[in-house]
Every structure is written in structure tokens, then in C-alpha cells.
Amino acid sequence: MSERTKLTRRGLFRGVGTATLISGCVKRKDHEKSDGPVVDDATAPAEIGPDPTPLRFTLNGKPAEVSVEPRVTLLEALRLDLDTTGPKVVCDRGACSACLVLVDGQPRNSCMMLAHDIAGREVVTAEGLAKGDELSALQRAFVEHDALQCGFCTSGMLISCAALLRHHASGGPGDEALTAERVRDAIAGNLCRCGTYPHVVAAVLDVAGASRQKAGA
Questions:
Q1: What is the rounded CA–CA span in Å between residue 28 and residue 23?
Q2: Full set of structural domains in the chain with CATH
Q3: 48-75 pLDDT, tens per residue?
């Protein structure tokens, strides 16, 4: 074999690379099908960002609209853009539940959700538990049983307890009475440095008992 026709390792890889590049530039024939799914403009998901993008959802029973960047959390949007300060900024990592809100009826840490994740959904904060200027039965019970002290955990506690009471009420008239253990389980993720847990349990049991008596009347 002459030096001119001798195949070297460098020449081999150079030839393979050139062939790969050329094959990638060749237009695929109509009869050749790709193994993967075909995504066109009609089925491709909408892209947002990096600039603020309009967001619409229901907040405490009323339509809400705000323009936020994709990186903004629901907690930031509520407090900074919509002046809804019930959810508190405490740990900001989903560990204390001071930022709890109801999303479609389920308690969620708003610091761990992107604002755009709740597009078209229903969000209820501690403010939304009341009816206008009239406090809900749960909020009144919190006051009567001294279940709020420094206040940082209060809104999250209210959301956890409201979710528990709604879930319990949906069980029907034959459901068993709510127990202190179930209340403690419901607020296990709510951190309170003031130690107001017994007062919260008493408040919830008071509301549940009153509701049960009213239903049986």
C-alpha cells in the first residue's frame, strides 16, 4: 500500500465526521418517517418569558390578572403584585407552611409553586375564608381560643384547618366526630414557635362540634 492510499486513524475519523455532516444536511424524503412524534406549530406548547406574561386566575372568588415573569412564585405574585399578604414569607422553601393557600380546594405551599402554574385555577388565601367583613366560624374560633399569637403561622394554620373541616364535612352526616388526633395530623406541617397547637386543636374541634350540632338540629 502506497503512502498516498494509506488509511490513518485521523483520516478515518475525518471521513466519518464529514459523512455524518453531509447526511444531516440532506433533506428527508416524504416517504421516510421519523420514529419520534411530529410536533408542529399547532400542537407545540406555548412558550413564555423571559419578560412578564399575563396570568389570569380566580383569587378569593374574584377574577385576578397580573403580568409576571416565569420565574416568579405564587407567593411573590400574591404579596408583591396583588397585595394579598395573608400568606407569609418565612422559610421560603416549603418547610413551615406559613405560605399555605388553597389551590382548587387543596392546601399548597405558595412559595413552592410558580405563579403561572395556577393559570385558570382557583386560589383561596386566609383573607378569602371570610365573607366580606364577617369572619368565618373558624377565624372567630381562632380568636376565641387564643390560637393566634405572633401571627406568622396563623394564616397557614387557618388554611390547613379549613381544608380539614371541608374534607370532614364532605364525608356526609354519618361521618364520625372529628378527633384531636386528626386535627394534629392536619397541622403537623405548620410550624409554630409560640407553641399554640393546643389552642388551634381546641378551635377546630369547637367549630366541628358546632357544625355537627347544627346539622343534627
A1: 10
A2: 53-211 (3.10.20.30)
A3: 778 999 999 999 999 999 999 999 999 9
